[in-house]
Structure to design on (51 residues):
């Protein structure tokens, strides 16, 4: 069975992922899921599209 191992701690003090002017909420969600797979927790959005 695949999934995210919730017992693993998230990496703190590591890299910050920055999305500049993301257009679709789906893209933000995909990035967030990929980050969780690698234990990353810092996501920044710069000028996201409203709505």
């Amino acid at each position: 069975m695949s999934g995210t191992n919730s017992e693993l701690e998230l990496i703190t003090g590591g890299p910050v992922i920055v999305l500049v002017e993301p257009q679709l909420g789906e893209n933000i969600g995909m990035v967030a899921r990929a980050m969780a797979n690698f234990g990353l927790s810092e996501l920044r959005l710069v000028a996201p599209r409203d709505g």
Summary: DSSP finds one helix and two strands in the chain. The two ends are 35 Å apart (CA to CA).
